[in-house]
Amino acid sequence: MPRRPAVVLLSGGLDSTTTLALAIEQGFEAHALTVRYGQRHGAEISRAAEQAVRLGARQHRIVDVDLAFAGGSALTDRTIPVPRSGDQAAGEIPVTYVPARNTVLLALALAWAETLGAGDVFIGANVLDYSGYPDCRPEFFEAFERLGNLATRSGVEGRPLRIRAPLLDMTKAEIVREALRLGVDLGRTLSCYDPDPSGAPCGACEACRLRAKGFREAGVSDPSVGAP
Amino acid sequence: MPRRPAVVLLSGGLDSTTTLALAIEQGFEAHALTVRYGQRHGAEISRAAEQAVRLGARQHRIVDVDLAFAGGSALTDRTIPVPRSGDQAAGEIPVTYVPARNTVLLALALAWAETLGAGDVFIGANVLDYSGYPDCRPEFFEAFERLGNLATRSGVEGRPLRIRAPLLDMTKAEIVREALRLGVDLGRTLSCYDPDPSGAPCGACEACRLRAKGFREAGVSDPSVGAP
What we know:
homodimer; alpha/beta; Rossmann fold; 5-stranded parallel beta sheet
């Protein structure tokens, strides 16, 4: 049976790389899509390219959209510092939130899914993200799926679209274990919001702290972090 | 009373320019957004810039996203010819349909609306477009509005988003009359899918034919079309 095509959003971080491995394990022909949206670092883009090849994606495309035009996020606006401490107020939306980011990522994935004839779009959103980011909540993905079915030729013609966020309910520790089970080369994933030019993680931003907590709770060491 | 900010998607064509004029008439402070999405012609971009200034937009931004990466449309793929005749089958989605185009445009507008604190996004979709394009139907815009309210900080904090498509139920003739009432400089709008390098409309594509029919039915001549 031929494998069904799926678009997989791939940033080169722990979550999206694990999602790509899962999609391939589930029998999909994976078309990896990396969106360079004006984030400060290009290092994760090259990790994405590496992982797409290593995991056996059918193809990998990189598309540019400069979300910096809209401003408002520490990830795209160099005048807003990336927070280094854990003092964000509970329930507050982090300054690293990029306005409408997942809507833009999924919209681009939807465009490609339509021309590929793919009925599935994978995104590596997870439970820890959605504690602060409105566009990581399950109801957001359900609403996007509904939108996608109205927006496209495929939807109109009765081939439904599925938005798959297989990590949504996992903790970071569960994701680390899943990545290890799937043989993901974790040393070549990059989660940091603010790495140095060589691609080394800062170790202090929220993404680094969440990742470190995940590895700690999973009881394994993170091969992407140099020994002290 | 200060005017409320709104994002207005502006391509420089008849519909979006009229929409911008309407938004300003309705008392909004208009932030015009032009998305250069890999369409073949740049001429409409310069018309958009001209119209934004002329109509009194508060600001105008141009953002690039290369939808050609996804292929599948005569408007972004140079290997697919733009149809010149009217022989498209009834009910068929035209080859000029750009996959997920309005989803991408609205996602980018949503990002900017969020950082501007704007609760309204205007788009110049209309009834004639949605005869063939799935993402010009009223239920698509309703679904996007619902999505936008789940996707954003504003939505979470109880400031609802409105997607406004004021031309949705108008015929092209009604839009022409509305544009004239609003004082839009129609000679400097460009609707053609395939203009020559100077920005002159081809006169034969579906957009040109719809526009010509609109002017004919409105009983006025189109100042953008040179006398024979």
